[in-house]
Amino acid sequence: MQASISQRVSITWPPSSRPVSARRQVPVRAYLSSKKGEVAPPTIQAANQLESLRHMSKVVADTGEIKAIKEYMPVDCTTNPSLVLKAMQDPEYVRFLDDAVYQERRRGNPEGIRPYSFIADQLAVNIGTELLSIVPGRVSTEVDAHLSHDTLATVDKALHLVDLYVQRGIDPDRLYIKIASTWEGIRACEVLQQEGIDCNMTLLFSFAQAAACADAGAALISPFVGRILDWHKKANPDVVYTAENDPGVESVKRIYKYYKAYNYNTIVMAASFRNADEIRALAGCDNITIAPPLLKELEASKAPLPYQLWPTMGGCEDEHHRMDFHGLELFDKLHGEDLMAVEKLKEGIDNFAADQLKLEEMIGAALKKANGA
């Protein structure tokens, strides 16, 4: 019988010292020349802005709702505990829960302090498997946010999720494992990427997080545009924010230019939008994950959509920072100086953890009802 992925992988901690494979060393003159840039590609002529955007960026659906994914047919889709919890309000999803309960009872996983956490894992995988039957690309499935500050537990949970997908016949190449961009989560990402498991680093709010994720070899990062804007609007109630001065948009542009200037392969996937103008301001970003209401708004617009980002645009104003395994002190300094990022990262972890518990409570209630309790 073939061993599971978690049984085959031998974890070495800390990771072996090696040249950072995610980038090539770039001399100063290359950095300076990158600031010159090239002109934007011509505007795409298409039936609507959503179609234009598809030619510039990979469009990803930020939902776990099957109907919406069938309607907009994105390349990839992303999920998280909050989206799974929302999707479970639809009676159509009861079958995924029923199967998750059956599978976990068959395995006989230990109950522990949170007896329904393993069922929640299987539920997320069941929904992800269904989504992969619709989209041609990948699905992102999130590691339990309660593990965000535990490197080895994050690695173990990630391997467990991949095993569950493999048991469903899903190739790991069609997965992204979502991990919170804490220092411990970034180190878990480094281990997993070395084993060929691609990670989507989420809850990313600071430049330091982005730099560290790239040096860890992350396949993809998800900077949260709208949540950055939320913080600044609360902190600066008298400021009128538009797409031109949106701090979330500015953050993604800075990260994108840094990655291109220093030849990182990590994909930048802008996420968490509050309005369609934020999306338009990032047209051309590698990936953009969009909720169904904003997909609908872009589809309804016939206005031209020019490029805002492209790989050869230049304009990076940041020197290179070494933020690999040995860069904790620099990471703590740069990330810690960004109050917005510190607060939003903690808030995001707390909220995802709370929704994970709500999901587990819903599973428990459903089981009690089914058992006649």
UniProtKB/TrEMBL annotation:
Molecular function per GO = transaldolase activity
A GO biological process of this protein is: pentose-phosphate shunt
Q: Which Pfam families match?
A: TAL_FSA
Q: What is its pathway? A: Carbohydrate degradation; pentose phosphate pathway; D-glyceraldehyde 3-phosphate and beta-D-fructose 6-phosphate from D-ribose 5-phosphate and D-xylulose 5-phosphate (non-oxidative stage): step 2/3
Enzyme class (EC, first level) = transferase
* Enzyme Commission designation: 2.2.1.2
Q: Which GO terms describe its cellular component?
A: cytoplasm
Quote the SUPFAM superfamilies the UniProt record gives: Aldolase (SSF51569)
- Catalytic activity field: D-sedoheptulose 7-phosphate + D-glyceraldehyde 3-phosphate = D-erythrose 4-phosphate + beta-D-fructose 6-phosphate
Query: Which keywords are on file for this protein?
Result: Pentose shunt, Schiff base, Transferase
Answer yes or no on keyword Methyltransferase.
no
Q: What does this protein do?
A: Catalyzes the rate-limiting step of the non-oxidative phase in the pentose phosphate pathway. Catalyzes the reversible conversion of sedheptulose-7-phosphate and D-glyceraldehyde 3-phosphate into erythrose-4-phosphate and beta-D-fructose 6-phosphate.
Task: Name the PANTHER family on file.
Answer: TRANSALDOLASE (PTHR10683:SF18)
Question: Into which family does the record put it?
Answer: Belongs to the transaldolase family. Type 1 subfamily.
Its recorded name reads Transaldolase
